[in-house]
Each structure stands twice: as structure tokens, then as C-alpha cells.
Amino acid sequence: MRVLIGFLAFSLFIVGAGLKPAPTTADPVNREFWTWYVQKMPPEDIMVKATCRGIGQNLYVFVNDVDWLRPVTQADVDRIIEAFDRSTPADPQKGIYQIATEAFGLPPDKDGDPKIYILISELGEFRGHHFDGFFRYLDQTNEKGSNQLDMLCVDAHDPASEYHLGVLAHEFQHLIHWRYDQEEEGWVNEALSELCMILCGYYTDKRHVETFLKHTDRPLVAPGHGATSYGACLLWATYVYDRLGPEFIGWWVREPGQGIKGFDDAIKHTAAGAGVKPAPTFNSLFADWMVALYINDPGVQNGLYAYKSLSLPFGPFCEDVTSYPSEREAEVSGYGIDYIRFSLPAAGRLGIIAEGDSPGLLIEVIETNKEDPSLTRVSEHQGKEANILVDNNGGIYGEKEVVVAVTVLEATEKPVRYHLKATLEQ
Q1: Domain containing 390: what range?
Q2: pLDDT number for residue 124
Q3: Residue 135 to residue 63: CA distance in whole angstroms
Q4: What's the pTM value of the predicted model, to 2 decimals?
């Protein structure tokens, strides 16, 4: 398993080192950098010797001397410069730097040099988890152990692969975000970094998407710097981008508020929240997202429940109910999702009584017809109790599929209990 270190908040105390000025020619320049040794936790600050192996319009590429030619090559360096400066899978005329800065904003420019330092160095593993790259926030401070410059670190194993170029885009958003909001909640920062990968054309975290779609009960919202579902973050931020557009994304990054409040405040500053009544909110968009993950059809509701910027490998896992009456006692995390699917035969009537322990309990009922997707209907029920009735209109259109998506619209420390009782009349 590979993991990204993006926004760690460790307190590091270490003796500083003299910093050399940035290179100004394409000739190799030697210097020392502070970096993290991540093969133990919390990570330790260590110093490595590196040589500049390439200079682009927006970056310097340094390679740890012990990794040069084993395994890092000049071809790797050249490809990284090409991707960062000039060309990405999303746009052959735009590099990672241009796409990211247009979408999210400018990097901090800690040292007064607009170029970004890229350090390629073997990162290794910790307890079976391989590290791919990180933005080391300490470099944006004047503390001991800081390089005092804008720098990203990428693992030395195949550093110019599409996967690691995606990591570079991901970590670059973290660097940009530091300039605007150093206190942002981790799940928001990770969501925007995953979006940066998608905007640059690196859908290389698809395995995280697949994991989430198999386990959608993993919460999107992890307050503070709690455990993050990268799959949920990627799918959420991309859906928000497709719904609200690039202008909103820029406001979201620059909004000084954090978490859900910051999201809602950002909407108020953009066209996304102007002239629309009621204006969208985090919770209303989350409800639509629950439906979009299942439907993902541009032909339904004028594309309200569909992705434009990516394709889903498959739909979310659903628990199927095939016999009646049926009862389900379960739990769902705040901003996690459970999907329960019922088959409604022709001329059938499905009744569902729902009750839960939280007033934030939300149920989205999705009615679909396999023969005619235009007949898809969505209804919403919120509160501790709900009585849901789905009538198949006398069976005119044949069998109907009914999916109940359940969540709690509040962050919770523990999952919330709910109960569903379903009956079928024919």
C-alpha cells in the first residue's frame, strides 16, 4: 500500500544548517537539504546531500546523491520538468504549475525565488506502508531544521511515472494551500489535492476510489487531522468542481474558515451562491453527491447527478433486499453512506419505515427504471423518523429498482444507529 504525506503536524526540533543560494545555471550545483526520515514515526529531520540535475521555468530538480543513477536518471528529471512546466495528460499545452496555480492560487514563495524546489530521495516504508511524497510544512517557517523555501519531496523509485507525477501535483496543492489557510482541516486539504491530480489528468488514485465505493460508510469529513479516505475526498472534490466550477474552487482555497463552515462561506462569495434560491450548501451538495455516486447519468436531471471530469469504475456497494417483510438494524458514520437496494415488481407498493438516533439522519430515495432512465425519481427524508412509500404506478413501466442511501449530516465520533423496516404490497 502506498500513502501520501501531505499535511502532517509534528513538532520538530533540530539544529539548523547554512543555506546556499538557489542555482542560476543548468550546471549541477551541490547543496544540503533538511528532509524527513519517514521510516519511523513521528518522522525525524535528517540532512541529505543533493545535486541539481535540471532547471525549468518553474522548478529546480535536485536528486539525493545516493539515489543518482540508482535508480534516478536524467530522463526522469527531464520528464518531471516537462510535466511540471509544459505538458500534462489533461492539457498538452499546460504543465502542472499552470493548471494548479490557475485553479488554486500561487505558492507561498518563502525565499523570494518563484521556482519550486523538487527533491527526489528514497523515502522507504513504515510498517508496510510505502511513502510517495510530501510537502514539509516546516520549510515555510524560520524554525531550526527549515530549508526556508518552497520545496516538495518525491520518492526516488520511478519518480517520473504517471503515478508520481500525480503525487507531485497532489503535494503542490498542499504547498499552495499553506499560503492561504494553514489551519484548514486535513480532509479538505486532501480533497483539494486529489482534485489537483484530476485537473492535471492524473487519475492515478483510482484504487482509492475503488476502495471507497466498496466501503462508502467511511466518512468524508474527518474533523481536525483525523484519518482521511482519499477515495471519498477525490470523488467529493471532483463532484464539487463539476457542479460549482473553477471559480468556486479558488474561493474555497482562499476562504479563511475551515471545514464545512469554510465551504459554506466560500459559496457565499461566488456565483455559485448568488441568485440561486435556496443557495447550495455543503449539506445539500453532499445529499446530491450521495445520489450521483449511484446514478452517475448525465441524462438524469440535466446532469445534476453525474460526473464530467472522471468516470467511475463501478457504482457503490449496495446491500440487496430480496424478501419481505425485511428489517435492518445498522449504524452509519456522520458523512459516511450506506446504500440499501430493493426490487419493486410491477404493480408493487414498497413501504419503508425508518427511524434513527440523530435528527441529522438523511435518507435519499432513488427510484430507477431499467428500461427508461428518464423515469428516475429522487426524494429526500430528514429527521429521526420517516415513512416512505414507493408505488410502481400499476406496473406500467415494469420492474423498478429502489435504492435508499442513508447518512447523518453531522460529524460524529461514533456511528449512529438506524432501523429500516420494509414491506411489500402486490
Answers
A1: 319-425
A2: 84
A3: 16
A4: 0.91
